[in-house]
Amino acid sequence: MNNRISSTTYSNSSAGSRVRLKKLVISGMLTALTVALSGFSIPVGASKCFPMQHMANVLAGVFLGPVYGVSMAFCTSLIRNLMGTGSLLAFPGSMAGAFLGAFLFQKTRKLLPACLGEVIGTGLIGGLLCYPVAVFLMGKEVAVFFFVAPFFMSTLAGTILAAVLLAMLHRLGLFSYFHRLVNE
Question: Is 173 helix (H, G, I), strand (E, B) or coil?
């Protein structure tokens, strides 16, 4: 009897480990893809807009969840900063959007709230969180809402790309397949 319980516990633990490993690998792949595509930017005002970051945030939020989504956004921002292709402003913007998009998808299981979460999280919350980073860490004198408009435009472009990709996956019947593949 104890052997059955132990093997069942081990089997459940092993399945959980496989799911975590899959999510970690996919998170790493999204990080690498986002860093590789970070050369594609759109200058808007005082910031550079990276729509690929926001597309990856939505994809990570939908397929991986909040912890892996935020971790992916953090790692991408860190690597871009270490390479000199990003700024400290990448951290609050990408991480807030990744969290809110993933959280809303997790609660509703619908794509629209995930996309809205990315836009609100990055555009509004991330834009506002950039104010203390810009003032206290970067020594810039800016208005509180200075980063909201450029972050909003950046996240809107990336979120539209993600929505189109997810809609295509859904129409082709691949969305649920990928979701099961990652989470089983």
Answer: coil
